[in-house]
Amino acid sequence: MTDTSVTPEATVKQGRPVTRLVDLRIVVDPPMASTYWRRTEEQRIRELEVWARELEEFVRDHRSQDPVSLTVERVTETVCDQCSRKWETYTEDGVTYCAGCGVQAGES
Description:
The chain is about 20% helix and about 35% strand. By secondary structure, it is an alpha+beta fold. It folds into 2 domains: about 15-25 and about 75-108, no CATH class; about 30-65, no CATH class. A two-stranded parallel sheet has the order 1-6. It has a two-stranded antiparallel ribbon with strand order 2-3. Strands 4-5 form a two-stranded antiparallel ribbon. Strand 4 (about 90) and strand 5 form a beta hairpin. It is elongated. The two termini are about 40 Å apart.
């Protein structure tokens, strides 16, 4: 026989900040001449556009000896583990809550 006179304690749902990968980018740093920064912004943009087209050709034919630096950049964002919205909090009566879903914020 089950005792129904005792009610179990309610479990309070808690949200925690988690860091998730939201994007990956490959960044290519072109070689820069010492006179690069003496040019106007428009000239620099045009030169980089030309360089980008040349890089595409380089990737296709593999014959260029220009030094090219490639870097993988991770773009992360801290989000609530309950609602997956950006981790922002507010405090009310000394208790901290997730601003996205309203659950009580737990320990990080």
